[in-house]
């Protein structure tokens, strides 16, 4: 069933009695050509593009809980294409272009809102870095605009421009960036994949891989054995756990990132604003809550909750940037498990086991990448060659010295 | 999190800086035949377990000692804290 204004009026006239579930709830088949492990944003997007763009069939998505219950429902919903390095920016630009056409592609309202992302800077050196980044973005077909202090003031007059230690000198404005309703991304991809014949199997945990002669044959799951021609793993924070079942170690540590929502306020923030002198980023949801976050906690963890020192640190950053939030009450906070890689960039590659493919290492930047991640992972699964925008995301980049280290922090995952 | 420092007693984890898996104490032999791949594994590959994890913490805001802390990564419960020097000298990290 397609969604449209006409359909909405029709259903309104007959008491909304004609709506159907957005996706089926099928029993697992004995075998599939493609099995995607992980029913989050990336896994569902992979299934969607595999079926729709690459015309593959006999595809299943296995999810241990319910779809969209992990990081795709736990992030701060920001999309942007403002990376610096050549290995990254073409990929994120592809992602932003896919976001721009997402709702038509999926026939689903994901509330993509290009309200702008403004990265503030507070010193001459940061201005130089912002100018360089902006030029890099423009060279890769993205958009960037350097604002001076008055330019920032006209966008966001409520910021603390007179902070003695970190005065706002300007910002790098990325107007095509913005926010998306994150749950709708999972649901939209799931519905579209389902309409293209993909089996989405929930409450089905992968407990092991069946591997013979270095070739993967299928997965053992909590709902029995499922054979597979090719298996793609896209499980974010659980990457280490799942891939260890195939005997693999990864250049990844799992860390927790916390996010926060304030009580609902009247519209106050024009777009996404990031503080350049501390780690704090904030936007306002359509319901009015300020959605904000900061650094990861910094130690290995699989618990989807963090500790209070980071809460204090994030709120201090917020107060330094926009003191007006001082009387706003925090409504909710939560944590998500991040697959922090050794250079801060993802891995989308074959493994040394035939038929087993891996997509992970997204650190805390996986949400914006969802469409492109699905698109290039589907490309890899369908054609066995990396997509042209993802040729740098290989396992062997670490031994070859070809790291994609945006922050220049080295092999220290908690610093990326 | 409170880390039970073996010399100073219970200390707030905020006084410490986190480095990572305690296997970083076992530096490979740079003269070995396979030194290149051993250093790759040492530098980049991690077990990243969900459960008991031995890890290095540096008491930067305290006595500047390195500790090996045994902690459950699913609950944040700290099971043990030892001086990294003792662990390294006893050769207990290989596991």
TrEMBL record, chain A:
* Molecular function as annotated in GO: nucleotide binding; sarcosine oxidase activity
| SUPFAM superfamilies on file | FAD/NAD(P)-binding domain (SSF51905)
Oxidoreductase as a keyword? yes
- Major localization class: cytoplasm
FAD dependent oxidoreductase domain residues = 33-380
Any one cellular-component term (Gene Ontology): cytoplasm
UniProt-listed Pfam families: DAO
Main enzyme class: oxidoreductase
Its Enzyme Commission number(s) read 1.5.3.1
Mind telling me which NCBIfam families this protein's record contains? Answer: soxB (TIGR01373)
Q: What name does this protein carry?
A: Sarcosine oxidase subunit beta
Q: Which gene encodes it?
A: soxB_1
TrEMBL record, chain B:
Q: What does the entry give for GO biological process?
A: tetrahydrofolate metabolic process
Cite the Pfam families for this sequence: SoxD (PF04267)
Q: Which Gene3D superfamilies match?
A: Folate-binding superfamily
Q: Which InterPro entries match?
A: SoxD, SoxD_sf
Q: Which top-rank group of organisms is this from?
A: Bacteria
Molecular functions (GO terms): sarcosine oxidase activity
The entry's protein name is Sarcosine oxidase, delta subunit family
